[in-house]
Structures are given as C-alpha cells and as structure tokens.
Write a structure and sequence with these properties.
This protein is of the alpha/beta class. 40% of the residues lie in helices and 16% in strands. The chain starts with 5 loop residues before the first strand and ends with a helix.
C-alpha cells in the first residue's frame, strides 16, 4: 500500500450529486481527513470551484453518468465507461486503495464482486453495518447483499464482521447468529447448521444465537444473518427510531408548560440521542470480502456524510482491514 491512501469518489452517485460530493471531498481535504482524492466523473471545469491550495490533491477521472436507480445490477458490467465501473476497475488494477459511492447499491455491489473481485477464500462478500448500542457500536452482517445463504456462507460473513469490529476497536469480537430464540434447538435448519460451522472454526469466537430484541445489549459485537433479514432489521430500526423521535416532538408541541420545560431540560440529551441515530456520523456501509475497500454512502448523503465516508475509507486503508480478513482465512 502506498504511503498516501488513494481514495476514489463517485461524483455522480447520490441524490445530491455532484455538488454535495465535491463539497464533501473539499471539506475532507481541508481538514486532513484524507490525503488525496480521485473524482470519478469529474470534469476539469469543476476545478475553479476547488481552493487553489488543494488542486494538487485532486485528480479528475473521466466517466459517464450512465448508472441511475433503475439500472439493474448486472447491467453495470456492460457500462464500462460508468463512474461505478471505472472506480472498481481502478481498484482491481491497484490504482485506487478505496472507492466511495452514494449511487445505485445493487450496481455498486455487482461491480465490486465481478470487477474488483472477491478475496480468495471468501465466497460471499457482504454489507457490514455499524449499529449504535450499549458500550459502543456493534456490527450487523449482512445488510442486504445476499438475500439467501447456505450454512457454510456464514463463515465468510462472520470473518468479515470480525475484521470490521476490530476496525471499530473491538478486542476479540464475539459472533452471534440472529435467531428466533437462544436455544440450540430453535430456528431453521440453515441457522442451526450455520452454528455448527462457526463452532468448528477456531478463528471465530462464536457466542451462540441472539434474538432481535437483544442486539443493542452490552457485550454484543457481531450479529450475522442473511441479507434479506438484515436489511429489514436495519430499516425497522431506522423507522422505529424516527417514529419515536417524531412522537416525542408531537407530545412536546401539544403539551402544557411543564411538558415544554421538561423538554428544555432534556434538550441536550435528546440531541445526543438523535445524533447517535444519524447515518451521517458513520459515513457509509462497507462492502467487505472483495479485493479493495468499497464504501457505500447513503443515497441522500449531504457533504457531511460524504466527507465522513471518505474519512472511514481512508482509515480502513491505513488500518489494513483487507489484510485482517485475509489473516483469518
């Protein structure tokens, strides 16, 4: 890996592209969150929007804005001039260490899997999701990349989750499998067989089944499930959190003077709660198991979220997260 991490940014990806992406890159460079950035899809005429002292840290890579939210995942493999394809191809060729995009998730994962390519020994790359919880974040794997899994696939997902948990600062992370109960007799044949695979792997600190209501408990590090279940859990958590916050706001608005005084006294605490649920603080979701660092930023990312996504991509390069996965194989 070169001394400076080479980060690529899809300038076309996301609802607020290209300006929020460009502004996020400028902020990240100004604040030394990254060393340099390759703007994929950027035109030279954007250079006049960049402070002159940053010109030597930004490179423009020509690409087409040919992938949208309606592009099917397999179609991106034919769109070789698209920003998503080019970013992954540059990782494959060793021209980039990481690539960040807020674009079409399915297209991005397809390009990551089939253009950048899987790590040898990994049969299922997966989306790893940091979730808030007691005593710091925990990792949910898979967040939506693999709708269905075979029991043996849980080994790859567990090791990807362990690598990411270590990246977040966890020591010897424990791995749970999401299930409808904690007893070994509970659940489908797939999860029961998956548990046997994880028990036999001495590089996995397997801690048994976990129920959905316990994923925010203390001493939970990695939760493994299929992408269909994981994506629904993620969206349910997000929807529930925002529902509770909106109901609190409504109750305060409709309440009396004492309710409003109480709300004022709790203002800082409520702000802290809201911040812990804000996707922008995490920057993006990692697609692990491929031969490069691929970060999927939220589709509605603003400049703050983009700069955080660039920061975590840069940190993952310097922390050698890919090597951490390879060491467990």
């Amino acid at each position: 890996m070169p001394e400076k991490a080479r980060i690529g940014l899809d300038l076309f990806g996301g609802d607020n592209a290209p300006m929020s992406n460009l502004e996020g890159a400028i902020f990240a460079l100004k604040n030394n969150l990254i060393d340099e950035v390759h703007l994929i899809g950027g035109e030279e005429n954007l250079r006049n929007k960049i402070p002159e002292n940053l010109h030597n840290k930004i490179k423009f890579i020509k690409a087409e804005n040919s992938v949208d939210n309606h592009t099917k995942p397999t179609e991106v493999l034919k769109l070789k001039n698209s920003s998503i394809y080019i970013g992954n191809e540059m990782m494959k060729k060793g021209q980039l260490d990481a690539f960040v995009s807020a674009g079409n998730t399915g297209a991005l994962l397809a390009a990551g899997t089939f253009v950048t390519g899987r790590i040898e020994g990994i049969d299922r790359p997966a989306l790893v999701i940091p979730l808030p919880g007691k005593n710091g974040p925990r990792v949910l794997v898979d967040g939506g990349a693999n709708a269905e899994l075979k029991p043996a696939h849980y080994i790859s997902l567990a090791k990807e989750g362990i690598a990411f948990a270590k990246f977040l600062g966890k020591k010897n992370p424990k791995v749970h499998i999401l299930n409808i109960g904690t007893e070994e007799t509970k659940g489908t044949k797939i999860v029961k067989d998956a548990a046997e695979f994880l028990k036999k792997d001495d590089k996995i600190n397997y801690a048994g089944f976990i129920e959905g209501r316990n994923i925010f408990d203390e001493n939970v590090d990695v939760i493994v499930t299929d992408g269909f279940t994981g994506n629904n859990i993620l969206k349910t958590i997000e929807g529930t959190a925002y529902y509770i916050l909106s109901e609190l706001k409504r109750e305060v608005s409709n309440g009396g003077i004492f309710t409003k005084i109480g709300a004022m006294l709790m203002k800082n605490s409520l702000k802290g709660l809201k911040k812990s649920l804000d996707y922008r603080q995490y920057g993006g979701t990692f697609f692990l198991g491929i031969n490069g660092i691929l970060v999927k930023a939220h589709g509605s990312s603003d400049s703050e979220a983009i700069s955080n996504a660039l920061f975590v991509a840069n940190k993952a390069v310097k922390d050698k997260i890919i090597d951490k996965i390879k060491d467990m194989l």
